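Checked the freezer inventory, then went back to the computational side. Two predictions to log before the end of the day. The first one is the construct we discussed on Monday; recording sequence and tokens without edits.
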Amino acid sequence: MMRKIFRYIALVVLIAIVVWIGFSGRIGKWFKGNDAVAAAQQHSGHGDNAPAAEPDPNNPGRKVLYWYDPMHPAYKANKPGTAPDCGMALVPKFADEEGGTATGSAKERKVLYWYDAMNPTHRYEKPGKAPDGMDLVPKYADEESAGGMAPGTVKVDATRQQLIGVRTAVVDREPLARMIRTTGQLTADERNIAHVHLKVSGWIEQVYVDFVGQLVKKGQPLFTLYSPDLVATQEEYLIAKRGEKSLGSSQFVDVAQGSQSLLRSARARLKLWDISDDQIKKLDETGEISRTMTFYSPINGFVMDRKAFPHTAITPDMELYTVADLSNIWVNADVYEYEVPYVRVGQRASMELSYYPGKTYAGRVTFINPTVDPIARTVKVRLEFANPNFELKPQMFADVQLKIDYGTQVVVPQEALLDSGNEQTVFVAHDNGYFEPRKVKIGAKLEGKVVVLSGLKAGETIVTSGNFLIDSESRLKNAMGGMKH
């Protein structure tokens, strides 16, 4: 009997405890709810003493109820600003958005549909929440009309522009220049290289220029040569000269002309064998045959190669000296094939050498190779530089810069351009929140900017950020317009 009594008492106590815990939880929740409401009213400015909401400066004709965080609509404020949690701009809540029509205005605004501001392709028949938690935005009938503007023109109000982060910029004309930086190798000017050969056989007797790298002047003696052919030709010349002296004044015309012709032929043979006028003049004055003849440098320059040694037998096919004039230097630079269209003959260039830090040399482009290196995909571009002090030496490596001047062009930021591959589009901003898609033809791209050849003019305003979302809405509008027809 006592056991049953204890069991009833324990059961009653247990029921009492459960009822007490449930009742106390509800009371706690009720107090916490009242505290949260009071805190929200105090923070958002909607308490009993909260000031009235400020009007929206972008929509002076529409009444603003409050401002809210689009990511957390429970957060409300009585003036514009930024949300404390995500830093996004607060969005105005208009009075005409509460019921779907423009209450309090002279003319009601008809709502066509509601859509997600972050994805305008998602449309709904009534207000609510988007899948990402943001409030749906109404699309009004008066926003569909673009006032006779180009197809695809859309209207985006200030609220949605803030949501999608629309930024604009003014199209301008500005001078553009670009630098092509590459490397090059120095080499001698091929037009100023002399290869010394003789046209007769013989033996070198004395050598005056006897080492590679020696600087020689034009007309400076290189070596002396003994040649039986030259000796015989000198004898013939002297004989012809004596014959012309005795027979040149003959009363027989044929005899006189024959002697003169023989003298001219002997003199021409000496000239063809590179005997100088001074040597022939000396032969005329002295009448004595020279056993050896001296040969001279044909140009100013440095000896790059030497095969002339004393007491060496030579033939016309032997190259005795190579002399290069280095007062003018070539630089062969490698330019990538996609940069070649911007390089032209006569274009100015600059060059720097690691051997002479801080010094810049000025030159110009003189030749563009007609072929492309199949492996490196580069084109050889020849530059010319003056080298009066012979600081520039063949086989040096240099850093080359080619300045490309585009002149004054219409330019836009590269992020403003929507490039589909086949066509390029920008969005032109008009008054009252209208954005017009505009096809453009572009030129060079450099340093974050694009040259616009046609389709835009200076002074127009274009979208530089948020244009992808505007483009999606524009395409959707065109598609819906096509379905209506």
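The second is the one RB wanted added to the comparison set:
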Amino acid sequence: MLYPFTFHPIFKERVWGGRRLEELYRKSLPPGAPIGESWEISDRPDDASVISNGPLAGKDLHWLMQNHAAELLGPAGSRPLPKRFPLLIKILDARDRLSLQVHPPPDKAAKFGGEPKTELWYVADANPDAELYAGLKKGVTREQFTGALNSGTVANCFHRLSVRAGDSLFLPSGRVHAIGAGLVIFEIQQNSDTTFRVFDWNRVGLDGKPRALHVAESLESIDFEDFEPRLSDRVSLNVRDTLETRTLAAHSLFHVELLSSRSSETLRLDAGTMRIFGVVRGRAEIHHVLQKVHLQEGYFSLVPACVSAELVLEPATTVLHIRAGSPDVRQPSAAGTAI
């Protein structure tokens, strides 16, 4: 019988990374290394998240997909069922800015032997001057972009957005982008690891050599009609005395809501929908007959579709509620209401 799962994070050393995940979330990072990514829920080749709780501790997410995919995914799973879990959940610590890059849309990914990648960024922590690069400045053409690449000024072609904690941005595949310095971001994405670098600020990698660029692939993958995208609206769709919800993304790949409690809140999780919960602020618990999960800031739990449970939010808690696909949204309206 399945139950709500937690996983051991997979830490990734990156030239642009830092130590904020240790400071903010008390994660046990490898000593001395610049950690840029914590893969919280992953089913990548050689990087499958290992279960950390309950009777199945030590098994990994790929084992779950091989043996319990229908129970895990429920109606959100495509038919035939995918071989790997459809989403990849990360926390990013950008001490320095990332490369200017693009993820290929499906047709270009197939051409180049990669995978498409659409994603959502939720800003969990930000320096006062933090910014994101996303899309092109209005009017920039492919020819102008190529010329700027050759002259080393391509960053001037990117649209920049000043951001603060609580902001979010949807990034469809084909949108050029980069994360600026001084940001901690929760990233929800397709299960993909294909990135084409356009420009890397003339820096060297952890091995002391310049990191590879993928200019030809990037130029074919970039949407040159994608001008000056906006951050997601901060308008809450459902507000009551104790709980408010805000939709961050409603897409065929994933649906993401932000749940914010003002006082203690209990929400019923009916079976039939696979869910992921990640705590941005505060504390939460998931109550199940086989397993009680305690979640602090910066930690996630995967609730299989076959599971019925309760989500308990402490006062002043903010949680990301993630579902594969874009199901009908049932907004909570009273204590104990199903979500």
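For RB: The radius of gyration is 20 Å. The chain has a mean pLDDT of 93. Let me know if you want it refolded.
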